[in-house]
Amino acid sequence: MTSTEAFETVLNETAKTVTATLKDVFGSHRLIVGTPHRLLDAMRHGVLNGGKRLRPFLVLETAKLFSAPQQAAMDVAIALECIHCYSLIHDDLPAMDDDSVRRGKPTVHKAFDEATAVLAGDGLLTLAFGLIAEAESIPPAPRIALISALSRRAGVAGMVGGQMLDMNAQDHDLKDIEITRMQTMKTGALLSFACEAGAIVGGATVDHRNRLRHLGEVLGRAYQLSDDLLDETGDAGAMGKAARKDRGQGKKTMVALHGVDWAKDRLYDLSVEAEELLKHYGDQATTLRAATRYIVSRSH
Amino acid sequence: MTSTEAFETVLNETAKTVTATLKDVFGSHRLIVGTPHRLLDAMRHGVLNGGKRLRPFLVLETAKLFSAPQQAAMDVAIALECIHCYSLIHDDLPAMDDDSVRRGKPTVHKAFDEATAVLAGDGLLTLAFGLIAEAESIPPAPRIALISALSRRAGVAGMVGGQMLDMNAQDHDLKDIEITRMQTMKTGALLSFACEAGAIVGGATVDHRNRLRHLGEVLGRAYQLSDDLLDETGDAGAMGKAARKDRGQGKKTMVALHGVDWAKDRLYDLSVEAEELLKHYGDQATTLRAATRYIVSRSH
Predict the structure, then answer these.
(1) Do residue A161 and residue B123 have CB atoms under 8 angstroms apart?
(2) Residue B7 to residue A239: CA distance in whole angstroms
(3) Quick one: which of A85, B213, B225, B276 has the fewest CB in 10 Å?
(4) Cβ separation of B125 and A123 shorter than 8 Å?
(5) What is the pLDDT of residues B4-62, one digit of tens each?
(6) What CATH number does domain A3-297 carry, 3.20.20.70, 3.40.50.2300, 1.10.600.10, 3.40.50.150?
(7) Could you tell me if A168 lies within 8 Å of chain B, comparing CB atoms?
């Protein structure tokens, strides 16, 4: 078994636990009582769809660095995954990326309808903040810090703003720096929240918070770059979506702009940067090191 | 000057203050730095559009009953108005109510485009929770209570769920009890949050919180009923939108089901119920009494 395969086993195990917890949440009294059936079904369709649960994984793993209570980390991980899934539902809408299939299944607006997809996304986004606010596993101060950070990273100067830049990009060619800004906001912001969240629930210092946020940004850039490489080199099976789709839609990527070799060199640089940040955590960061290698190498 | 006219003056004054504060928020460093221009413009279009600011008014007035700091009440009022405005932007979308005009101006998806409208709504919703989380005017415990209550009232068992039921209703005739449930969720939930929020920022007892939440529900039912009466009797000028529009779309209202006289009797009952709840607050509740009369009488 290669180290990548070994890591995939770990990631899959975590994904199973996260998905089981999500199933509990979406089958809980809180959600079943009062939620229209069709809306709850649409949210479940959007959330329980076999995702890799990379963001929850990063919350759980970074929380371990600070011996944070498992339950506290899981509560944040679940809320973050709700945000990620809402963003996918809205991004798939006809007015946005107009995708019919995600992870081999119809997207929410295809399986239900557009109005239901908009509302399922709104519902997940609204729920995420409530889940953190009500997470008794986390003391009040970090709970508030988490909500503030999540609002900023998922909001108009973060993920939502990144999607806006991505939509605008379809009308004109982006420059190098504009692509980086868009991707940092669209993908990087939630990954950097994931890593920083572990430090927050672990009651870590501001230095640790900043370092892990930085790690999340580095992993976000690497993730996006390897995604673009996969898109360019065209291994559709590894992506679960049509290869070259992004280029087909006229979306400029850094790989399209600078070439495959440049991208591979850049991925190597990013892996070194991540290793440097993880040195502070010694052996405790073994799994996060494997995660870094996994993100960097999945496109090779 | 009639008492209704006097109250309208008070409401308009509050609306001016709220709108000025919203302008500050949407011109603040926090939002200008990092938010794509077009997205910020779309959010401003959706928020600074001459609304009556009834929900902020109710937060501010109920907070006065408990001598809560003005700044704390305003911070919540602004967040709540962001939620209300996001819901209007999404409700107006072609896949939802498909409205082109709101308060005499093009809706956000008409003035911009659908994708921008979806993202502007998402951005406002995300921002609202961050504004409360970062409201230093409010101690940590009530801040968390506010976020939890807002998430529940604005979420899938509240406002978002109500809009879902409203969408479903276009396909079949709703029964009496189903209309009530839909309207309680769609309109009542945010108004009940508005009133309860004043009690929360004022550090009031659970009894007060429950009573004011109840007041908000009563005002919500009255508001909806007078809205439906206006729709039925057709004073388009008073509504700022096309009269009989809801009936024209085949939406069943309680007025359509039970008639104008029944609705007026019911409005009277609701005003008595509100007066009973406000008795606990004596002269301090004079403005809230005027608000009740205003809501009840605007359709006569």
Answers:
(1) yes
(2) 60
(3) B276
(4) no
(5) 788 999 999 999 999 999 999 999 998 999 999 999 999 999 999 889 999 999 999 99
(6) 1.10.600.10
(7) yes
